[in-house]
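In this supplementary section we document a worked example of the pipeline. Step one takes a protein sequence of length 463 as its only input; no multiple sequence alignment statistics are reported here. Step two produces a three-dimensional model, which step three serialises into structure tokens for compact storage. The input and output of this example are shown verbatim.
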Amino acid sequence: MRISQLDRSRVALWGWGREGRAAYRAIRSRLPELALTLFCSPEEAADARGANDPRLSIEHNASAERLSAFDWVIKSPGISPYRAEALTAAAQGTRFIGGTALWFGEHADDRTVCVTGTKGKSTTTSLLAHLLRAGGHRTALVGNIGVPLLEVLDPTPPPELWAIELSSYQTGDVAAGGARPQIAVVLNLYPEHLDWHGSQARYVEDKLKLLTEAKPRIAVLNANDATLSALRLPDSEIRWFGDAAGWHLRGDVLWRGDREVMDTSALPLPGRHNRGNLCAVLTAIEALGFDAVPLAPHAASFRPLPNRLQPIGERDGIAYINDSISTTPHATLAALECYAGRRIALLVGGHDRGVEWQGFAEAMRTRAPLAIVTMGENGPRIHQLLAAVAGEGGFALSAAGDLAEAMAQARAALGAEGGVVLLSPGAPSFGPYRDYVARGRHFAELAGFDPEAISAIAGLGMG
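The serialised model returned by step three reads:
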């Protein structure tokens, strides 16, 4: 839907984080006289009052009764539409959308490539923009990766292409915006964000709305994901990656069908899963109508993203790897695979949103590192599962109260021989940290490195 369609409606904003502020500015750019109500925390209200907007009312209690008073509520992505108050208001006619819907309503005819998946979506989206730019195409790198879409509502000049990362909080908004993306890339599906979605089944359903409801012209899908490989999308052309007919890996070698293209072992893409996602990128580039083969070697100049299997330095024989973005046990297992054969002290645990760790514990019977330190809200639950297999797995197990204590225990476990301290928590950072970026910065600081030097994402925004 276009922003102008909000005119003469009762409209509220819910949340005043970066996405909420971007939504406010976007609405004001089109509808300067529209009365708006903002639901936010008292801390956020102080900043919102700085807008000096007489047409903006600020409230703190987003109750079902108050939400029901509005035709439209533009909510920040982190606010679940499955909260009781939102469901009650929706039943009474209030419509909840995010800023992503408003952006797509304004950009329905643009050439967009939307990327989602449980893990790897940020690296994949960034790599896509990198290779397209290497081919001379002005490409915007935006979305969940760090630039809200509504912050780039009216870029001048506009880019030729949009590489857009979408979280499961945002995928449903594409169809709500009334747009069909040119290409949608879905990498994989694992249990995630169960506290927001309410169940694994709903998480998958919401994630797949990018395909089932937005109906992209071309869907680029992982042939090796059981859920994705079973999909039938009558309104979209499907192009597969990871199968022998298209872009795929044989060992470390990249192939396009029967054509050998290049060895990927030296690429700055840690983990075979990331090199596999290069296949997704190249498939999407072909779906755009470009020759992907000459662009593939440009992956060698890609700059890895922070907080994603990021080597931040070595001190006293210990290498520190920052994988703070890891918020599922599957991501932690992938991180361990990257450093197989090394002496690893693994730090796991964080915010508990109900994800099952039993499969991870079972894997530790045969694939365990030297030591595992549990921490965070779900640390005790993970610790209990691991304690049952520690003897068979042959790893040292300890528990820590916070990240600083966990790192001290990890260094002690490695001892004079050194090795790798791997922060791959498999859980969100909420609680002690605002987000995974803050957690990664603290990890770097505790390891003795400059947190500023590890935090920048290359290529964000227009390119």
